[in-house]
Amino acid sequence: MRLGLRLKIAISTAIIAVTLLSLTACDTYDAFYREFVDKSEETYETVKIGVFEPLSGADKEFGELEIKGIELGREVFPTCMKKNVELIYADNKSDIYVAEEAIQELIKKKPAIILGSYGNVYSLVAGKYIEEAQIPTIAVTNKNPLVTSNNPYYFRVCFIDSYQGVALAKYAVESIGAASAAVMRPRNDDLAAALVSAFEDKFVLDSTNPSAIVKTVEYTAGDTDFSSQLSQIKQSGAPVVFLPANETDGAAILVQAKEMGINAVFLGTEAWDTESFIEKAGDAAKLAVFSTVYDAETSVNSTTELFLRAYREKYGEDAVPEPEAALGFDAYMIAVAALDKIGTVRDGDLLRLSLQYTFQHPGASGNITLGAGGDPMKTVIIKGIINGQAHNIYTMEPAVVNPLDIIGQTGDIGAVQE
Asked: Whole-model pTM?
């Protein structure tokens, strides 16, 4: 049975109301759904959730990490809509040609929702089939904007790379109080260009200074001498330097910056969140501050604590969860929550609306808000180096817009904005 547009708008509004207002009278929504939606065909025995991952091949290790979190989520919350959750696996074998066949075979098994895949290319291959079948899908760790772009059925729980630029700019202004910044970027690097654009836009906005970016210099990845660029940075007097560099270049630049007496804070991405980066940078690592997708030491909400307890009960008291596992857990939990809200596995379009209005979902990796674009606005952990160890020094929470306010002001049921 397909619902009419007006009915879907009405139900989606009810979804938002229940989600955002946390109504204790849940029977109100249940009664609404029973009155307007015929569920006489809801005779399924289990709620099927598809898992589209590389279970073999070159990317097997990373696919298994995502599955680790998904399966832990199912162990902690094994039911949905008062039925057992059944995970249905499809192995794309780390191969784009196999991925095309695998996603079609998975769709034939009629999962209500799909999780995965690790690897941007496999998700991109699957995208058109997912949209045609109208089966909402949640990517776990891939970050390519094209995965969700122009595909209303693809969502993700991991922030896209450029979002780190937003988080770091917010940290620089709010925590450091920086009124100006410099940028040091690698040449001919599209990812770095996107990061820089996001950082500059957010820094100018939050600092309310159109001229806040006082210096921009470029370097060639793999160089060993950065003295010319660093001299310009030092002369600019900027208290913070945005440096979207890889681990090796970032460490080398920090070492030279320290030798030149530069005391600015260098802002980097999750590429620096490794023990080897700290080793390479040595004492200069104390100049570094960087964003990361997950930190096991940081308790953002009750779910982060629940996830950590469940993980350690399963893998040992000293086990440290991988970011991929935390994100896999979040993808599963958001999927179950969205299905519970609508009470049916028969309508992918309605489930898409339910996902679209995920607002401040308390996830293991932080609080997550989705929108029509599919990309999350979420908690970002900012780390600094203290006594040779990376520690959380700032937790960035985005300013998100209540979808109910947008509906009331514009009549648009699809927009949630940063």
From this structure: 0.87
